[in-house]
UniProtKB/TrEMBL annotation:
One of its GO terms (molecular function) is ATP hydrolysis activity. It comes from Eimeria maxima (Coccidian parasite). Residues 216-254 are annotated as: Disordered. Transmembrane segments: none annotated. This is Heat shock protein, related. Residues 73-222 form the AAA+ ATPase domain. Signal peptide: none annotated. It holds the Pfam family AAA_2. The keyword Nucleus does not apply. SMART domains: AAA, ClpB_D2-small.
Length: 420
């Protein structure tokens, strides 16, 4: 019909995004402000882990500035710490903020790679074997999404043959699959998580916080997270030595945390070969969540419920009394935010869902989660219809009992992760 088709830059970028998995935003927007604000952005999602967030943000800034070798991954980190402290959440957050989507997180559960023969699945079975056409679980995923965060979760569970496969990739920034195809990892951030030394971490921070007289702030957390200048060792943990218990070993919280880090790194060096440790950009210790951080994590987890109800037209509020109620029953020093998430899944969401399905909680309603005024062990949902001004219509308010449960001592909550 004589009309010309004009392709704009964003059209080309979109096509390349579909072909390669390279995030659209990386090609069309200035990354400067995003990179410079990355630590602040990540801190909104990963609560109570300032040093871990800063280390990852700094590594990405260094890479964007062109100060890193171009034949290596963007960075290679080992995250140490107990469950529920934000190790996996930080990986998810980086994938979304730097690569536009959590879909650019390639997560590999190392429990599935405990046998020697299972390691070959990462690059694909040899020619002639079943599944060879499908490619490797690692190499194919990175080939399709070359700008990704690659997470090796609980890496201590993998067979030792994993390292003969990965070390060349960490050195040279590429890995060949079973067909001989070379896959580029230079635009990937590599993260290894491990629970090694978690008991030392839990004990060390507990003692340090007791010495500082407060569980509200991280105390000397900055000194322990990456080690660095505090103990004369690098972030890779060189010079770690054996020490005894924590109580009475130091005159300050920093002394306790420095010794804790030494014990943790000795465990790490005893498990992983020096060649592995030497290829880490940094080994980061995630601190157990303190009271303030636990409250912040609970707020984040409740926000997902708030958004879900908002999509159904329900104005959902959480009273401070409800926050305290849940923290008393679900906050765990040992299991961090994970146990609180399970509490919401077991006790809150299953009791709200029937109200939505039955129509008792509907579009235009307000629902407030609050502790009962008469029974401190009871959690209620107060519902009312809203008028045009956003106030409750007279005669529409009612309360429904969601949970009746006594609070558990902290030691009982830390004893086991289940909520039975």
């Amino acid at each position: 019909d004589g009309r010309r088709l004009v392709l704009e830059l964003h059209d080309v970028a979109h096509i390349l995004h579909l072909w390669t998995g390279i995030p659209l935003g990386k090609m069309t927007e200035d990354e400067v402000s995003r990179v410079l604000r990355l630590a602040d952005i990540l801190s909104l999602r990963v609560i109570g882990q300032h040093q871990a967030v800063k280390a990852v943000a700094d590594a990405l800034a260094i890479q964007r500035a062109g100060l890193n070798p171009k034949n290596k991954p963007l960075g290679t980190f080992m995250f140490l710490g107990s469950s529920g402290v934000g190790k996996t959440e930080l990986a998810k957050a980086v994938a979304e903020e730097m690569f536009d989507s959590e879909k650019n997180l390639i997560r590999l559960d190392m429990v599935e790679y405990q046998e020697a023969h299972s390691i070959s699945r990462l690059i694909g079975p040899p020619p002639g074997y079943m599944g060879n056409d499908e490619g490797g679980q690692l190499t194919e995923a990175v080939r399709q999404k070359p700008h990704s965060v690659v997470l090796f979760d609980e890496v201590e569970n993998a067979h030792k043959n994993l390292w003969s496969l990965l070390l060349p990739m960490l050195d040279e920034g590429h890995l060949s699959d079973s067909k001989g195809n070379r896959v580029d990892f230079t635009n990937c951030l590599i993260i290894l998580t491990s629970n090694i030394g978690q008991q030392f971490i839990l004990e060390g921070y507990k003692e340090a916080r007791a010495l500082s007289g407060s569980n509200e702030k991280g105390g000397a957390a900055d000194a322990a997270a990456t080690g660095g200048a505090e103990d004369g060792s690098s972030g890779k943990g060189s010079g770690a030595s054996s020490v005894g218990g924590f109580k009475g070993t130091g005159k300050s919280p920093k002394d306790v945390l420095r010794r804790m880090r030494q014990k943790v790194l000795k465990e790490v060096f005893g498990y992983f070969k020096p060649q592995v440790i030497g290829r880490m950009s940094e080994i980061i210790i995630f601190e157990p969540l303190n009271d303030q951080a636990l409250k912040g994590v609970l707020g984040l987890k409740l926000s997902s419920l708030t958004k879900g109800l908002a999509a159904r037209g329900v104005d959902f509020k959480v009273a401070d009394s409800a926050m305290t109620y849940i923290l008393e029953r679900a906050a765990s020093y040992k299991y961090g935010g994970r146990r609180m998430g399970k509490y919401l899944e077991k006790y809150i969401k299953p009791r709200v869902a029937p109200l939505l399905i039955s129509g008792k909680l509907k579009r235009g309603d307000r629902a407030v989660l609050a502790r009962s005024n008469t029974n401190p062990n009871q959690l209620n949902l107060i519902v009312c219809e809203l008028d045009e001004s956003g106030n409750c219509r007279p005669g529409t308010k009612y309360g429904t009992k969601l949970v009746v449960q006594e609070a558990k001592p902290q030691d009982d909550k830390d004893e086991e992760e289940s909520l039975d």
